[in-house]
Design goal:
Layout lengths: L2 H12 L6 H8 L4 H15 L3 H8 L2 H10 L3 H13 L6 H10 L2 H15 L3 H8 L5 H4 L1
Helix pairs in contact: 1-2, 1-3, 4-5, 6-7, 6-8
Length: 140
């Protein structure tokens, strides 16, 4: 099935009254992140609307959050998650460690680029300001 056909099926699952959640899930969830990003671009080209906006208008709660998260490039999403985990009083150590310990070198480089581009600050500097001692060298 072509990307164009998949995009049309996705649009149909959200068109009209109500959403065909089973179809929406069966279309989006089996795809790799890079394929979903392509799908989002094709959706915008075909329908003149951002796929994330369409999903937001048709879903809610954790379901909406999950689907919209899938529509973002992985490094961009993880950079946002790291910023959220570092921002404010205290850090979400579990989230930071989960991301930092599972990203390979290539993905980590992309995360750093996305973090700097989005927040105009260095991920390494933010980590260093939150962590010191034995843990710092392992996170920076």
């Amino acid at each position: 099935m072509s990307l164009h056909d998949i995009t049309q099926r996705l649009h149909a699952s959200m068109a009209g009254a109500g959403t065909d959640d089973a179809q929406l899930i069966s279309i989006v969830c089996p795809l790799a992140n890079s394929e979903i990003v392509e799908l989002a671009a094709d959706y915008k080209a075909q329908y003149g609307r951002d796929l994330r906006d369409a999903i937001k208008s048709e879903t809610s709660g954790h379901y909406e959050t999950m689907l919209n998260s899938l529509c973002q490039p992985k490094a961009y999403y993880l950079a946002k998650e790291l910023r959220g985990a570092l921002k404010g009083a205290g850090s979400d150590d579990d989230a930071i460690i989960a991301i930092m310990c599972t990203a390979d070198n290539e993905l980590m480089a992309e995360i750093k680029e996305q973090y700097t581009a989005k927040y105009r600050r260095s991920l390494e500097s933010d980590l260093q300001s939150d962590y010191s001692g034995k843990l710092e060298p392992n996170l920076t």
